[in-house]
TrEMBL record:
The lineage of its organism: Eukaryota, Metazoa, Chordata, Craniata, Vertebrata. The gene is LOC113097316. Pfam families: 7tm_1. The chain crosses the membrane at residues 28-52, 64-85, 105-127, 139-160, 191-213, 244-265, 285-305. It is found in: Cell membrane. SUPFAM superfamilies: Family A G protein-coupled receptor-like. Its main location: membrane. GO terms for molecular function: trace-amine receptor activity. Keywords: Cell membrane, Disulfide bond, G-protein coupled receptor, Glycoprotein, Membrane, Receptor, Transducer, Transmembrane, Transmembrane helix. It comes from Carassius auratus. Belongs to the G-protein coupled receptor 1 family. This is Trace amine-associated receptor 7e-like. It comes from the Eukaryota.
């Protein structure tokens, strides 16, 4: 997520605050919608964080990655969405230079952590399906925790260098703007590190996952032919395999659908005019909405999440030893 250097007078001219042209009622509706989306993002990801953190049954390698993704998406809901949507509604940055710096850093940090976490989830699922014995022996919760911590620390160092060592916040002092000026080489590096490499890995690994899932379904159908007495059980397993493959398809499709438009437009950022700036800010809304959708595609598809949410909202989570409650009984 970047903006390459341009003439400062052009930047100021582009980002001067215009007069608000919408009626007061529309203005209120827009802010209400923005608040609702931000609240949905925060609440959805908080439920994921509480569920995975609290219930000991959910302390698995795959769920640790879901927890990491939920934390990054929570940052988007708290520090990014409200300010960006306000910026979009006002057509002007009204939160001051300090919040601009916080907003920009959290945007870069949450984005890189989120994308790389999805890539780690792809690696985790591929290993679990392709080499189940190796996975159960080598991939422990501790290993995934170390990988997750490394992901966050790498993103912190990378984004700090990109924005505060190589980037330029202080050179632009226009009123009503919040810009992060990065040179073209760094923009290209950012595109490769944060988008092209992880997304290529995701597509390749999930393609193999689909092949493995199809192979499993074929094996199950073969067992049905040789063992009619277990056909009902096998049909359930076959349906489960196809459902898992469908869930992965939805996951990859929605993830890329939210990310691709911004990076496609960012590749054409040499077209710096008013229409481009308005378009890129609008496309960023879809980019951030991925943080709202993630709790649905990563957690709501799991039966344990529905059960843990029920326990949380009924305050049973406050009971003694509630962390030991069985939340996996519906996942069979």
């Amino acid at each position: 997520m970047n903006l390459t250097a341009m003439n400062q007078s052009d930047v100021c001219q582009e980002y001067l605050c215009p007069e608000r042209s919408v009626s007061f009622s529309v203005y209120v509706i827009l802010y209400a919608a923005a608040a609702a989306v931000s609240l949905l993002t925060v609440c959805g990801n908080l439920l994921v964080i509480i569920s995975v953190s609290h219930f000991k049954q959910l302390h698995t390698p795959a769920n640790i990655l879901i927890l990491s993704l939920a934390v990054s998406d929570l940052l988007v809901g708290v520090f990014v969405m409200p300010f960006h949507l306000s910026w979009l509604i006002e057509s002007c940055w009204i939160s001051g230079p300090v919040m601009c710096s916080v907003f920009s850093f959290v945007t870069f940090q949450a984005t890189s952590v989120s994308v790389h976490t999805v890539a780690l989830i792809a690696v985790d699922r591929f290993l679990a399906l392709s080499s189940p014995f190796l996975y159960s022996e080598k991939i422990s919760t501790a290993v995934i925790c170390i990988a997750t911590i490394f992901n966050w620390l790498f993103s912190l160092l990378y984004n700090f260098t990109l924005l505060y060592v190589n980037g330029k916040f202080t050179d632009v002092t226009c009123p009503g703007e919040c810009l992060y000026i990065v040179d073209e080489v760094s923009s290209l590096i950012d595109l490769i590190v944060v988008f092209l490499m992880p997304c290529t890995l995701i597509i390749i690994l999930y393609s193999h996952v689909f092949v493995i899932a199809k192979r499993h379904a074929t094996a199950i159908r073969a067992l049905q032919i040789h063992n009619r007495t277990e056909s009902s059980k096998n049909r359930v397993s076959d349906k489960s395999e196809r459902k898992a493959a469908l869930a992965l398809g939805i996951l990859v499709f929605v993830f890329l659908l939210c990310l691709l438009p911004y990076y496609i437009f960012s590749l054409t950022n040499f077209l710096k005019d008013d229409s481009f700036s308005n378009l890129i800010n609008s496309v960023l809304v879809l980019f951030y909405l991925n943080s709202s959708i993630n709790p649905l595609i990563y957690a709501l598809l799991y039966p344990w999440f529905k059960k843990s949410v029920k326990i949380i909202i009924t305050f049973k989570v406050l009971n003694t030893d509630s962390s030991l409650m069985n939340v996996l009984s519906l996942s069979s």
